[in-house]
Amino acid sequence: MRGLFLAKFGQIKLGDPDDKPEFSNFSWFAMIFTTGIGGEIMYQSVIEPITFFNDPPFGVESGTLSAAEWAIPHNFFYWGILAWAIYALPSIPMAYALYVKKIPHLRLSAACRPLLGKHSDGLLGKIVDIAMMFGLIGVVGTSIGLVAPMVARFLGEMFNIPVTFGLLVIVIALWVILFGVSVYLGLEKGLKRLSNFNIIIVAAITAFVFLVGPTVFMLDNTIQSIGVMFNDFFKMSLNLGATNNESFAQDWTVFYWAWWIGYASLIGLFTARISKGRTIRQMIITQCLIGPVGCWVFLGVFGNYALNLELSNLVPVNSIMVNSGQTEGIMAVINTLPFSAILIPLFVIAYLVFSATTFDTASLILSSVASKKLDRTGQPPRIHRLFWALILGSVGIIVLAIGGLEAIQLSSVIVGVPMILVFALMTISFIKSVKEDFRQKDTGSTLIRYPVHPISETNQDQVSEQREDVFAGKESNIGK
């Protein structure tokens, strides 16, 4: 990524020379960010620091100040640069294939065309896309299983009703309605507005907690934790617990890498879809810098707020989590905030919209991959989008009904591993295409783009004569 950012490849425009970005910078980032992290970050921002404090890595004694020093850094580590760099792996090759090479399908297999050739449209390409769809359904199902109980618990607190399976179904039904309507309306009227709204409301809640909470502690420990994370980055990355027989790496690190890889196909395809008119350098900055910083700000506020409650013995968050469940631990933390009666409805809205943007995007991408052709705006038929919205909602209900969350998590790990090979194929294909295109540019040859529609024999020569220079930012005059 650093090579792409610094090299001349970073200035490549994703589209024709006169193409403008489809969305404003704010909306573009809002859609990438809300889709990339979903509602899980609101859940894990409280759970993980307390869990790491009481079950730390590297043989550190549980519940000590030494354990506290590792709690937030590991939280930042799992939701930081590596996660977003994994997202960027398929994003850039897919965007280049879509808007420079003009490949007409929003599929991972299409971006592998330079290496796979005609096989990208055959059985091998179908295997790649089906594996991606299976993994995507798995990680989205896991997300629903994680976040739905939390939203149900908030609703139970608001209306003084017990959390039952029926309430969980109502929560998922609300999601299906919300992201079903959004995905039906499309990117401009649906997902963009949903993402913009969500960023604003989450930013407002985060600022409020930062101001009314232990501000100095939050700020100091956030800065310190970022320093610890960078200083021990490789130690955290390569820790396997070999000498102390701990399962921390298997329970957290391995699962998270597989989790991000499973989500990367979704984020990669979606980011590529909304990045027309951007440059490769802009994509790298947004995904590998702005994305992690956004996560660290949110985690730094909520994670440190919960950790401070535990360290100060104000609220026994860990005991509540162990004895009553993680959702009760989160609720105990939220109830310590001023105006909690007002904040809880805002948290419900934020959870619903945060997750809806992810599920909305998943429906859009699944329907795009499953559709034989897209419309003139690059979107699949609306009926396909609604179908996949219903499928994702049904999967969530099934997961909660059978209590199969661990099985779904395992499936995301199993599918995530072979997806690494797919991303490697995409990356090699991308590098091959870029080098060939630059070589053609430097030698005055033609940059051939894949046709959007099948070529007839009568216009084959005309297409092969097409000569555009997307690197110089203007049309080439070669051969005219």
Automatic annotation (TrEMBL):
Region (Disordered): 459-480
Pfam families: BCCT
Its membrane topology: Multi-pass membrane protein
Compartments in which it is found: Cell membrane
InterPro entries given in the database record: BCCT_CS, BCCT_transptr
TM helices/strands, residue ranges: 76-99, 127-151, 163-187, 199-219, 254-272, 284-307, 386-405, 411-431
Predominant place of localization: membrane
Annotated family: Belongs to the BCCT transporter (TC 2.A.15) family.
Protein name: BCCT family transporter
